[in-house]
């Protein structure tokens, strides 16, 4: 028996006591995130929004098995937000349509949501009227039964059967009335309910998952009262798709108690906010670096390459990598690097090494940074590694490490204190 087969099935229940600590953690993480964002200028905030939306569009589509070109998405978003995009790749009409939906939902999160708007957004996902080679109903609620299945023909497994098509309009009317109303319930909880309720109705033949994530983001934005979205849940769901589908199926076969679903949703949301925190640290460190070298003359190629590594590109800075990434000769790459070594922008990681690699000098005096940090250590959490330290003898600071740095630490090629400058430059 599916949840929607029960009377008043949308009267969801949950255990507030079980969720209260998680709600508090999410709220605290949101507050910290917005507090840190206040230290960024408007242009930097817009760049952070653009990168977050890029990941949101790409991963939300990937969850549904649709792979988009990340650079096309990034280019479309940059053009629509009026910001600089180095690669300037022309996006396809399809990518532009998907991006337009995401931006409209972000910019108009406080407008009433209705059937017409939802149908328009769903139609934008399928401009040709086809999905994976099959024709789908576009721009209207579905007119046939919807079974969520997996497995090969003849050995399919049914995970969920959505409400019958004649019920969809009434079910959506109830949902939209709830969505557009003021409620005393936390917007964090309402976001999780909106996601679950919408996918359980499954009003369209295709595109329901992406719309559910957009709708849940809109609810979060209403709580934040902020048109700028700095974090997204899509990338975290994409990392844990199996668990997502399992908890969804379990709750859709349940008795209306959605505590377990909300617990999973809040934990996933917390991971998304922490991931956004990492992105903001990257922007803050990058800004601090460019402020330090503001008066130094550099070529366009040098600036683009520095930005690539400052944005977290996972590779050592070597003449070979520099030449490959910037599409120049190795001799030109060596000249670029040596010029920046002389200007104090780069330094040899291991002086006198036969095959030298270089690191970015975020601060002029690295010894100075080391005197400010104590209790420097690396901690593992959920398969990720974090650099933590005590700053100025009082504040505990913690930043997620790039996988390349984690691997090099494990091999003993670098020591934790050698990464302080890279990850905590913004504190100085």
Could you explain how this protein is built, in words?
The protein has two domains: 3-283, Fido-like domain (Fic-like fold, Orthogonal Bundle), CATH 1.10.3290; 296-427, Orthogonal Bundle (Arc Repressor Mutant, subunit A). Helices cover 54% and strands 10% of the residues. The protein is built from 17 helices and nine strands. The strands form four sheets. Strands 7-8-9 form a three-stranded antiparallel beta sheet. The protein has a two-stranded antiparallel sheet with strand order 1-2. A hairpin with a 2-residue loop joins strand 7 (373-381) and strand 8. Helix 3 (70-81) crosses helix 4 and helix 7 runs antiparallel to helix 8. It starts with 15 loop residues before the first helix and ends with a helix. The model has no long low-confidence stretch (mean pLDDT 90).
Summarize the structure.
The protein is mainly alpha-helical and 428 residues long. It has helices at 16-37, 42-63, 70-81, 93-107, 115-125, 165-180, 187-201, 208-224, 234-239, 241-252, 259-292, 300-310, 319-326, 330-342, 366-371, 403-410, 420-424; strands at residues 130-131, 134-135, 147-150, 157-161, 346-348, 358-360, 373-381, 384-391, 395-400.
List its traits.
two-stranded antiparallel sheet, single chain, 428 residues, 9 strands, 2 domains, globular, mainly alpha, 10% strand, Fic-like fold
């Amino acid at each position: 028996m599916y949840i929607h087969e029960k009377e008043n099935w949308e009267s969801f229940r949950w255990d507030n006591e079980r969720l209260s600590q998680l709600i508090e953690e999410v709220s605290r993480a949101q507050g910290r995130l917005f507090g840190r964002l206040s230290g960024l200028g408007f242009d930097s905030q817009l760049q952070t929004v653009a990168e977050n939306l890029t990941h949101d569009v790409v991963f939300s589509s990937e969850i549904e098995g649709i792979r988009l070109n990340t650079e096309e998405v990034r280019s479309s978003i940059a053009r629509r937000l009026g910001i600089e995009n180095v690669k300037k790749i022309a996006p396809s009409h399809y990518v532009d349509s998907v991006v337009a939906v995401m931006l409209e939902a972000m910019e108009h999160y406080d407008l009433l949501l209705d059937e017409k708007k939802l149908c328009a957004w769903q139609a934008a996902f399928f401009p040709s009227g086809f999905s994976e080679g099959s024709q789908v109903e576009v721009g209207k609620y579905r007119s046939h039964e919807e079974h969520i299945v997996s497995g090969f023909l003849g050995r399919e497994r049914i995970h969920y059967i959505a409400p019958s098509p004649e019920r969809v309009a009434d079910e959506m009317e109830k949902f939209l009335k709830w969505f557009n109303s003021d409620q005393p319930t936390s917007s964090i909880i309402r976001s999780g309910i909106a996601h679950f309720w919408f996918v359980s109705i499954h009003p369209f033949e295709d595109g329901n998952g992406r719309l559910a994530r957009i709708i849940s983001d809109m609810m979060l934005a209403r709580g934040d009262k902020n048109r700028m979205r700095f974090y997204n849940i899509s990338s975290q769901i994409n990392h844990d798709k199996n668990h997502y589908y399992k908890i969804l199926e379990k709750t859709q076969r349940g008795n209306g108690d959605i505590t377990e679903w909300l617990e999973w949703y809040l934990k996933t949301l917390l991971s998304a906010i922490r991931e956004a925190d990492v992105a903001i640290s990257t922007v803050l460190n990058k800004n601090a670096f460019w402020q330090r070298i503001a008066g130094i003359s550099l070529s366009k190629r040098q600036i683009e390459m520095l930005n690539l590594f400052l944005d977290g590109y996972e590779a050592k800075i070597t003449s070979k990598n520099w030449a490959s990434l910037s599409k120049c000769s190795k001799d030109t790459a060596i000249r670029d690097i040596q010029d920046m070594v002389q200007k104090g922008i780069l330094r040899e990681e291991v002086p006198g090494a036969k095959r030298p690699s270089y690191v970015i000098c975020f601060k002029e005096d690295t010894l100075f940074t080391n005197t400010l940090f104590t209790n420097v250590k690396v901690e593992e959490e959920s398969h990720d590694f974090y650099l933590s330290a005590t700053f100025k003898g009082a504040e505990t600071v913690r930043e997620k490490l790039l996988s390349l740095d984690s691997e090099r630490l494990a091999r003993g090629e670098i020591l934790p204190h050698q990464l302080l400058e890279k990850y905590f430059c913004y504190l100085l």
